[in-house]
Amino acid sequence: MANSEMSPPAARVLLLHSNDVHSHLEQAAKISTYITEQRRHYGADRLLALDIGDHMDRMRLETEGSDGLVNIALLNEAGYDAVTLGNNEGLTYTENVLERAYGHEARFPVLCANMRRTADGLRPEWLLSGTVVRKGGLRFGLIGVTAAFSDFYTMLGWDAGDPLKAAAEQAAALRPHADVVVLLSHLGLAYDKRIAEEVDGIDLILGGHTHHLLEEPLAVRGTTICAAGKFGAHIGRVEVDIDPVSSRPVFRASCVPMAAYAEDAEAAAIIGRFRQAGERLLSRTVTRLGAALPASAERESPLGNLLASGLRRWTDAELGIVNAGQLLGGLAAGDVTAAQLHALCPSPINPCRLRLSGAHIRRALEEALLPEFVHMPIRGFGFRGLELGTLAVDGLEVRYDPDGPPMAKLIDVRAAGEPLDDGRLYAVGTIDMFTFGIGYESLKQGLEIRYYLPEFIRDVLAAELGREERIRDTWRQRWIQAGR
For residues 30 and 264, is the Cβ–Cβ distance under 8 A? Predict the structure, then answer.
């Protein structure tokens, strides 16, 4: 521990902030240790703890099995004073689930100024645009905003408005009642800089979403910007004072690594209880397989084919296309449990239907034969695998020469038995990740995009595993080498 942290507290208030923990629960338990230690040192009245969103991530069994209640329990145990919503909370759970978590279990206010229900234009009682918290004799005006993925939020019954406008309105409303105005921003660093440039009245921006670690704070037009990276590897630390001459807040900010800290014992016990409950819940049998279904990120495989065919049927499309890297393993013969499906397909990625030209499909198929695409590492955008993988397809038959030159390996591509028409638009069942331009970028060019929420692609896989005729069809080759 640094000597400065052991010296008598000089700052009027110590503000601690976390962001993008993404259900790295053991790191959350270490953060709890640090918060408890600093609260003991400063006193509860002089410590302010805030989380900037994406604490939850359904790739973690404890979070999946509890609908995020393990995360709420850990935030409660650490004594957080307020949080905002990230996209991993707002987009992966329905309002009813969020109501239970934040409306009934949370012991802290939840802030998000740019989210309202579509049905009535109001916020639920558990969601506030902002609040004022008193610490160390100072009034902290807290505002929350989150990334406005409007197309997705609309399908879940939310209106995600302009976060810059919402931040400006709340800053103006809270400024007369606060000594320090703080924006909890799950928007990303570029947006944080823009808000600092364009919005008056905000003293401190605590950022997240783009996983940026600011070991030294940024100063933009009189606003200080801080962020603590990702996965709970650091916690942000801001010492807050008031300048006696200008009466403006003064910040001394840094990020503290959590590697050397032990897990808080109570937090560890919470994780253990929810792990046991999650294991029991996800032990239910989804189906029973008479034979194994292998999966491969590098080449065509039965389980990849099953996912592609499932996306085609789920979205009522002509073709199904998905990257094989979504699957982290295959399935053995015998009982298949919900826990197994969660483990091999953990990404919170949604089905999607779009209309795509034959030319854009053809380009993606060519790329899927190149090692630089198959082994491309992908981070974020809901993807929880390791590498992109080749393309699994359904409704297509692809003949290719593996020894042909790059981007000229395809010999013949058939869609429903007919030659793929470069100028025609095809209805394609795929995944939302591609619409962000990730991996196979030509698949971003789709029109008439429709997202399917709140189901994930593992729900599609579970449905397909219950149909024996579809499982048999997975062994039919879609990718055929020349001369075979």
Answer: yes
Q: Is the pLDDT of residue 156 over 50?
A: yes
CA 91 to chain centre: 8
Could you tell me which of 54, 66, 40, 55 has the C-alpha nearest to residue 280?
66
Tell me the DSSP string of 434-477.
Answer: GGGT-SSGGGGG-EEEEE--S--HHHHHHHHHT-HHHHHHTTS-
> Global pTM?
0.90
Q: Please tell me whether residue 482 adopts helix, strand or coil conformation.
A: coil
Beta strands in 121-215 (DSSP E): 127-128, 130-135, 138-146, 158-160, 180-186, 204-207
Closest CA to 400 of 391, 390, 413, 387: 413
| Rounded distance between C-alpha atoms, residue 130 and residue 171, angstroms | 9
- In single-letter form, the type of residue at position 115 comes to M
**Quick check: 381 pLDDT over 80?**
no
Please indicate whether residue 383 or residue 132 has the higher confidence score (pLDDT).
132
Are 394 and 319 a contacting pair, CB within 8 Å? yes
Token pair belonging to 183:
């924006």
